[in-house]
Amino acid sequence: MMTELRPETEQELAEAIRTLTGPVAVRGGGTRAFGGAVTGPVLHTGAMAGIALYEPGALTLVAKAGTPVAEIEAALAAEGQRLAFEVPDWRGLLATEGVSTIGGVVASNASGPRRVQAGACRDALLGVRFVDGTGTVVKNGGRVMKNVTGYDLAKLMAGSHGTLGVLSEVALKVLPAPEAMASLAVAIDDPGAAVAALSAALGSPFDVTGAAWLPGAGALVRIEGFAASVAYRAERLAALLAPHGAVTVERDRDAVAAQWAAVRDVAPFHGRPGDLWRLALKPSDAPGAVARLGGPAVLDWGGGLVWALLPGGEDARARLSGLAGHATLVRAAPETRARIAAVPPEPAPVATLAAGLRQRFDPRGLLNAGLMG
Amino acid sequence: MDLPAPNPAVLGRKAAIVARLRAVLPADAVIDDPAETRAYECDALTAYRCPPLAVVLPRTTEEVAAALKVCHAEGVPVVPRGSGTSLAGGALPTGDAVILGVSRLNAVLETDYPNRFVRVQSGRTNLSVTGAVEADGFFYAPDPSSQLACAIAGNIAMNSGGAHCLKYGVTTNNLLGVRMVLMDGTVVDLGGPWMDAPGLDLLGLVCGSEGQLGVVTEAWLRILPKPEGARPVLMGFDSSEVAGACVADIIKAGVLPVAIEFMDRPCIEATEAFAKAGYPMCEALLIVEVEGSAAEIDEQLGLIKQIAGRHDPVELREAGDEDEAKRIWLGRKSAFGAMGQINDYMCLDGTIPVSSLPHVLRRIGEMSAEFGLDVANVFHAGDGNMHPLILFDANKPGDLERCEAFGAEILKLCVEVGGCLTGEHGVGIEKRDLMSVQFAPDDLEAQMRVKDVFDPKWLLNPAKVFPLAVSAGRRAA
Asked: What ipTM score was computed for the predicted complex, to two decimals?
């Protein structure tokens, strides 16, 4: 049994991959355990750490892949800035421990409620450095906000879960942190009525940065910005949403932050038994999907993202057949994961393209083999 | 700028190839009369021209697939073309290539306000996408200067930006999905009206791939509710450095304007002579636009003016009404046209870290003197996307070559300070041979492996993006 690998530099990472004789499990902080079973010793990226460059005036930050997210968020907060895409903490959801790294975040394209307004992790990703399965160092993109020079391999790496290459460095666009925030709650028990309310908010000019529905809490709408502007928009949105149900407005910054951390981290499902599924679909299809699944659900992204709990071993995809979109199995017992693919099967021509890319970026099938199916 | 020699075998089979295309397409969808194909000999990079072998103008995804199958079987290179507004030669054909124009694919297929997307055919123009939804209070955010003419297909191919992408992002951030035909005629859907990919993000890979991976025939585009209002402020400074410092301070203060545009003195002078927008004669001018309700705009502009005040502006002009706002934008929007009136020019597109702005502007000024060619700068300052316009005389022997050499030096400088060759126009043929300045051989190899997967015979727009010597082995295979 080979010992664990813990490269401290990109060169060491490249050397380690070049000399591999069998598959490895690539791991950042190990907080986002996901997908099919992966064999082999662990290749830890956590020793490649540190913020390499941070220019607040240019809204850009470059960090080694193993840098803890908390370290990056602290550095940004000191300058009144933040990551654009609101990194979710999945430890409560997946019963994992450890320290989330920025490389792991990018590799899983982990994106929180602000997705509806500021985009996903992949949208904030300006550039990457990685080592592919042949041990070759590749850089792509850069550290500037507009860049169409060559193919966008950074997007390909975001969400590839370490299967095409191991990230060594990422460059991110960051944003100013807002002066104030407010959250409106509309008393709605039914997902259908909730999505209608959220669509009304997201279709308004009031720059909504979060639109979710939690059972018990109702439909939630977040706004952020300068204090006077937040006050104005809260008032206008309260009027807009009134026909959908009783509206209450939370203006306390800490309370708003806590509420949206609960949405971001899917707190209602922490410690709950069952298989955890994640659906991406048209918001207006969400209520029907929730009805077909029958179990507890949390809606984010205006309904475009559904988290659902199902009894162990059930295949959500069978229940959702015919509905456009896709369903990912995020958490389940090993025997279920052995039977149901975590990542939804793709139509043949798309699967052929994906297989072709894997074959070229990781021809020996060494990196997180089987994790994405 | 070299283009690969046309394949004699293809040229020799022209009649047979055209006959096969005619057999699978409507009669008016295939053009091979040399007088008519000349209309497709170049795009907006007009210095380079070459009539194609033939032109096909399909009306449906099925017709696109049929045409590509024929070309794939015959080994004929295909150059996809939107509206032909590429400034980088992205739609420039070779003599043995079939131009596949998507201009007849221009319908809006689906408008969905509750889910905030439209599905359009890719030949539809950028501005007409917004046109289809603005009466209902929505818009499509990416707004390249050519938006009246340019097609969504070209926007996707080049990952186009625009003046307002500081807030709204570029094409890739507003693209939800595509229907695309691969070179062998296979139709694939990547993405759709939802917000992320199930497996690998192939959509993100396709956007900005310059028509080398497939021909996009339909797109799902994110639409946004129109803001309540928008208002610009114009600020003049007595040096470019000070204007650059002001931009950094505005961003650091936590204001995120939708646009920060920059013009220098040569550009201001040319623009004034042409458009008479009433701009102050100064070394550098910023136009900053913010959005929201009237009160929100007042608050943001108040803060911006306060910051600008610390940099001793020679002029600070806020738009009092719609008419004044239009006048502030008038000069900026006519800048390229104005420069075209007085000179031939080459428009560069490198992006630099905003912090390097003063240094880069100073170096461009020095190089301008060395090369003996004037430069006017107009660009998106908020995101560091520069547009130096090098002025030259196309009728003067050697001027174009000197201009290109100067342009190459500016782009090398952009890379040297941590930036890139192109921010929104694309590589095309124009920056192709400079790719090795920005990328190591392994970086280019990784990108070419992607093309190997999507287009194993390297028939789609093959002479673009990668230096010819670097792609030679693959194109010959």
From this structure: 0.97
Q: Edge-to-edge strands of the sheet including A218-225? A: A247-250, A180-186, A218-225, A208-214, A297-300, A305-310, A275-280, A326-331
Name the B residues in 43-102 with CB < 8 Å from any A CB: none
CATH of region A180-264, choose from 2.60.120.290, 3.20.20.70, 3.40.50.300, 3.30.70.920: 3.30.70.920
List of chain A residues whose C-beta atoms are within 8 Å of the C-beta of residue B180: none
| Degrees to nearest 5, angle at CA A287 with A282 and A291 | 130
Can you tell me which residue has the tokens 């951030």?
Answer: B173
Task: Provide the whole-model pTM.
Answer: 0.97
CATH class of the A10-176 domain in this structure = alpha beta
Contact A119, A86 (CB under 8 A): no
3-state secondary structure of B187: strand
Q: Nearest by CB to A229, which of B253, B296, B352?
A: B296
User: How does DSSP classify residue B213?
Assistant: S
Q: Is A164 in Cβ contact with B453 (below 8 Å)? A: no
What is the identity of the amino acid at A39? T
Q: What are chain B's domains?
A: 8-102 (3.30.43.10), 108-225 (3.30.465.10), 230-336 (3.30.70.3450), 343-416 (3.30.70.2740)
Q: Report how far residue A221's alpha carbon sits from residue A116's, in angstroms, rounded to the nearest whole number.
A: 11
B425 interface with A at CB cutoff 8 Å = yes
* A169 neighbors A65 (Cβ within 8 angstroms): yes
Following DSSP, what letter does each residue of A237-250 receive, concatenated? Answer: HHHHHGGGS-EEEE
* DSSP result, B89-150: -TT---TTPEEEE-TT---EEEEETTTTEEEEETTSBHHHHHHHHGGGTEE-----TTTTT-
Q: CA-CA distance, A187 to B35, in Å (whole number)?
A: 68
Residues from chain B contacting residue A325 (CB–CB below 8 Å): 192, 194
Interface contact B252-A56, CB threshold 8 A: yes
* Partner-chain contact A147 B420, CB within 8 Å: yes
Alpha-helix runs per DSSP H in chain A: 10-18, 69-77, 91-94, 102-107, 115-118, 121-124, 153-157, 191-202, 227-241, 253-264, 286-293, 316-319, 334-339, 348-361
Q: Is B64 exposed, middle or buried (0-12, 13-18, 19+ CB in 10 A)?
A: buried
Helix (H) or strand (E) holding A101: none
Domain boundaries, chain A: 10-176, 180-264, 267-339
pLDDT tens, per residue, chain B with 477 residues: 788 999 999 999 999 999 999 999 999 999 999 999 999 999 999 889 999 999 999 999 999 999 999 999 999 999 999 999 999 999 999 999 999 999 999 999 999 999 999 999 999 999 999 999 999 999 999 999 899 999 999 999 999 998 888 899 999 999 999 999 999 999 999 999 999 988 999 999 999 999 999 999 999 999 999 999 999 999 999 998 899 889 989 988 888 899 999 999 989 998 998 889 899 999 999 999 999 999 999 999 999 999 999 999 999 999 888 899 999 998 888 888 888 888 889 999 999 998 888 899 999 999 999 999 999 999 888 889 999 999 999 899 999 999 999 999 999 999 999 999 999 999 999 999 999 999 999 999 999 999 999 999 999 999 999 999 999 999 986
